[in-house]
User: Fold this.
Amino acid sequence: MINHLVLFGATGDLAGRFLLPALARLLAAGDVSPDLQVVAAAPQEWDDATFREHAAFRLREHAEGLSEDDSRAFLDRLHYQRVDFADLSSVRQAVHGFADTAPVAVYLALPQGLFQTATRALGASGLPHGSRIAVEKPFGEDLAGAVSLNALLSEVLPEAPEAVFRVDHALGMPGTQHVLALRSEDAMPASIWDGAHIEQIEILWEETLGLEGRADFFDRTGALRDVMQNHMIQVLTVVAMELPTPATEKDLRDAKIEVLRSARALPESRRARFTAGTLAVSGTDVTAYVQEDGVDPSRHTQTYAEVTMHVDQPRWSGTRFLLRAGKALANDRKGVLIRFRPESGRDSLWIPMDGPPGSMDGELVAYGAVLLDVLSGSSRLSVSAEESEQAWRVVEPVLHAWARGVVPLLEYPAGSSGPANPFPDR
Assistant:
């Protein structure tokens, strides 16, 4: 178990919303070492006290149920280091501040555009033997970017592939784990988990939230790159893979890669962005996407993406996989919908990503699982180098078609169910 964590991007929304609360809960539950120490690295001119005050506020917001004593115990082990990647001395101080020889887990909770810069700085600073680097998504902005980043990471950490942890917290969400459990039980035998019994599998990531202050990031990313190319593709692999027995980390990874190698996006796809409207859940009025601060309308960024895929394996002959993601929609729906063929005699099956109603927040639970794997040395929830590249291979034809204007950019009012559906069978 690694006892020293360096969190780059510690003042950002990802750290405040998920990583810090998840770490605090892990510590309170005794799941990580009581000797855990955390260096919070960011560009602000802060000190320990200022960052701890910031962290305390985020814990009150997002770590529901954490006692004051547990919160205080966690805050006491947070240390702040101002870091500028152009200043290698600040990077070295963040990494080697604990002890020169102690392995560290470095978590890059940064914008995608900084991954290569940060990785080069870490390589120049020198990481102690046994260290790990965890890289958030999106992993590159296209296939070439993923290949380049993988090459750089292998240079910085040549010890073993497991030293690089490509984060996709969707693998740790309760729904994804439930799919694995369901497929391992007699309740869902392998004999009916195929194209002869299943007509369509829908993987949905629909949100009522709009941009929530992330306009600058989202406008350079879009719905497909933000959640479909990574989270939803990973869920697809878990749903469609040949379940290995025994299900070791390597066997599961190999089975997922086989799905990605055989997956292909069909020409039919849809993209759209929201116009002004009212969110039904909160009653909040939302301005049109193109009027949001930080948005450049000329980028034609989509807030809604729908892609149909086939998995060219004998098991899935005749089954259609539909992936749909969107923001500012009428309802929150994240999960997997299994539509059995009428002649199978089975009703549709809905598997929510957050787990059963009333469950704790699934994403916070997932980030706890990710952090535990990063610190313990497990790669159970890590995406392999080939997976990261194959996922881009699957979606790049869609992105290229959109860039050429082959697929029109539709619109839908915020608070609606999305753009009008031209396909009567869906």
The CA atoms of residues 271 and 305 lie 5 Å apart.
